[in-house]
Amino acid sequence: MRNYREKFGVFWFFIFLSFFTQKTTAAPPLRIVGSSAVFPFAASVAEHFRYKTHEPTPIVEAIGTGAGVKLFCGSLKGPDAVITSRPFTIAEKKKCQTEDINFEEFTIGQDGLVLIQDKRDIPFSLTLNDLNLALAEKIFQDGACIKNTHKFWNTIGKEFPSYPIRVLGPAPTSGTYEVLIEKIVTSCGPHLRRDGAYIEAPANENLIVQKVLHTPQTIGIVTFSFYDQNKHRLNAFSVNGNFPSFESIQKRTYSLSRPLFLYIKTNDLSRHIARLNYVFEFLSQRANGEEGYLSEKGLIPLSPEEQETMLKRAQNLQMEIPS
Amino acid sequence: MTKILKKRHRKEKWFRRMGLISLALALLFLGVIFGDIFYKGYPAFLRTEIFVDSGRNDLLNPHAPYHFNKGIQWIIASDDVDMYMKHGHQGKLSQNQIQVLENLKKKDQIRLTFNWGFFTHSDSREPELAGIWGSLWGSLLTLIVTCLTAFPLGIGTALYLEEFAPKNRLTYLIEANINNLAAVPSIIFGLLGLVFFIHFMHLPRPSAVVGGLTLGLMSLPVIVVATRAALSSVPSSLKEAALGLGATPLQVLFHHVVPYALPGIMTGVILSFARALGETAPLLMIGMVAFIATPPSSFLDPATVLPVQIFNWSRSPELGFIENTSGAIIILLVMISFFNGIAILIRKKFES
């Protein structure tokens, strides 16, 4: 009798297992990897994409721009799309070509790097040159590159408060760091200071906000969406005379702004029409318009002309699909 | 003589006091951590809803338009409204919107209710809609895989090593290695999982199988060590008596040794599964840090687990995710204490 019951137990166990292992018949969801700066927006679009098309929600993984592109160009079976905070490099394009991967680039919006401080600190405004003097590892002085030894902001400019130079920002693995290097470091080597004046924070911008709020006289570098969510307790610095705002970033008058990109694989698009539909959702007025849900999340939308260009690009791809 | 005695008493008193102080300190830390988490997390179990006739779509959650005309009376408000109702943060609300909200309050067309969605929804980019259902399923599936691999392998290894293996240099080496493995940081197992299960065996990337196997590898040495400790605590007189009465070694093992050691074994196993349930680091290596809004329906489907969900939310810009993070931590703590409670119960039951 006991033996009999045991056998039944095994039987039920396998029924239980098969319940979990049944194959789903629906098409596999889109796979999107890449920059953690674009992740919040790409995931938002993924959610709306599900409601609109009734296809499975795309899976979005934030693993950083570099790692994302590596996966994307690694094999045809890899992710369907990659989100980046900078365009592909020549080497990356070559890598994709050797794997026979065709891709198309879309600009999906603008983002700004915002320097923030606690609202209780004294605000002051900076120029790119000030930032170079404060943060570059080596600075150009008297015709030579010398080690940066500035310790206080008022040694850079007399009008600044005597705060120590203490800036929390992205780590070198992120695309955001590369943008910082590109914008503020001039001829003396592509590094920010490593003597404690520039502090690399891991890829958690909430942490930077928290630290700025808890340590007075500290400056943080975050992407616009994080500043946008914490406006009530943070000051933003003006850079080269412009404060970061939707307008100044969209028109690129704010110096620390950058475009964000989405790349999709265009091989065999007729079988992967969802990729194109995802791009259309990203570029739609509902998402990327002035009042779209992405701007609600802190993405600075494309200007109407740019949006037109990008839509054209997507429509061309759609036209090429043999029906 | 009395002097020495006094000195000894003083020493004992001091020792007791030190113990009390360290206990108090530990409790204080625990209290501060729990207090902080509960204080930040309890608003996650509340949500703001607006009566459907209010006519202001800008105050509702961004997915509300998909659900109109479905006979729903109360609609979940947007996270800005939610923050205003709970904490008074003005956020991105305009003066006009705040006016409207105050009017709605007077007309009782806005309310704070229990946030069922936090348990029944899956991940979302909108804090007011995000929930833990998907990641809870992911955790369950992952843990099933972990159980199926680590339990039989771990117990089998321990039984063989303790009862049958010849004592020579090789088994000694294996033993030392297992003890070492139990102390290896969990992220190393993540790397192992990445190389072996994903690059070599080509299992699907963020899936419960890979996560479960990796966590299984991680808990294997712990289970082996705990099981062996339980087995070696069985008095040898018990075994000798059974052998003396003519039982085969196998009979001795399964009729006497294992039942005697079972409470210890089960405690070790359950505790290591509780640890696997709360583990994040190795899962980061194998790509379970993803936005996955549909709960997994099989072991091969893309899945994420509760601790990784917490990690993901903690990185999101929206203020609403701060309380969601703490809310999910509360759930995780409750689950882990539940597991530990079961471990205690089992020990008590088998001991009597």
Overview of the molecule:
The complex is a heterodimer of chains A (323) and B (352). Chain A has helices spanning 2-21, 39-53, 65-72, 90-98, 128-135, 175-184, 205-214, 224-229, 246-250, 273-283, 285-288, 293-296, 304-320; strands spanning 31-34, 59-62, 81-84, 103-118, 138-141, 144-147, 167-169, 198-200, 219-223, 234-236, 257-265. By secondary structure, chain A is α/β, with parallel strands linked by helices. Chain A has 2 domains: 29-111 and 258-320, D-Maltodextrin-Binding Protein, domain 2 (3-Layer(aba) Sandwich), CATH 3.40.190; 112-257, D-Maltodextrin-Binding Protein, domain 2 (3-Layer(aba) Sandwich). In chain A, strand 7, helix 6 and strand 8 (198-200) form a beta-alpha-beta unit. In chain A, helix 2 packs across helix 10 (273-283) and helix 10 (273-283) packs antiparallel against helix 13 (304-320). Chain A is elongated. By secondary structure, chain B is mainly alpha-helical. Chain B folds into 2 domains: 43-115, no CATH class; 133-351, Orthogonal Bundle (MetI-like fold), CATH 1.10.3720. Chain B contains 13 helices and 4 strands. Chain B has helices spanning 2-41, 79-87, 95-106, 117-120, 133-164, 169-181, 186-200, 208-232, 236-244, 249-277, 281-285, 306-314, 320-351; strands at residues 46-51, 74-76, 110-114, 290-291. In chain B, strands 2-1-3 form a 3-stranded antiparallel sheet. In chain B, helix 7 (186-200) crosses helix 8 (208-232) and helix 12 (306-314) runs antiparallel to helix 13. Strand 2 (59-62) of chain A pairs antiparallel with strand 4 (290-291) of chain B, so a sheet runs across the interface.
